[in-house]
């Protein structure tokens, strides 16, 4: 039996999350009824202002041309091959939309400020 690597575990988790996605109301974006196609959003979530918008000519190729901000500080996001999104704050918890990535980051920050992430 092959050794279970982190990559295989994450791949299996992504497959299960993708398969359960349409039937699960557990994700914040789906539970709130937000089925945006990665359009612009600007809202207050748990007392924090989260914003997202398509970024024209984005220098951050992992974000697939999308910028997300928490209280005005950019939250670096990345789109996975399966269409899910992760951020530097909630890297091991893929979510269906950039809005859900912003909400997950706010949940994980637990009131702490988001610090700027140095771009490479």
From TrEMBL:
* One of the record's GO molecular function terms: copper ion binding
What start and end residues bound the annotated signal peptide?
1-25
Pfam families of this UniProt entry?
MelC1 (PF06236)
Q: Which organism is it from?
A: Streptomyces caelestis
Q: Which UniProt keywords apply?
A: Copper, Signal
The record's family statement is: Belongs to the melC1 family.
Q: What is this protein called?
A: Tyrosinase
Q: Which domain of life is it from?
A: Bacteria
Q: Looking at the keywords, is Acetylation present?
A: no
**What's an example GO BP annotation here?**
melanin biosynthetic process
InterPro entries with a match to the protein in the record: GriE/MELC1_sf, MelC1, TAT_signal
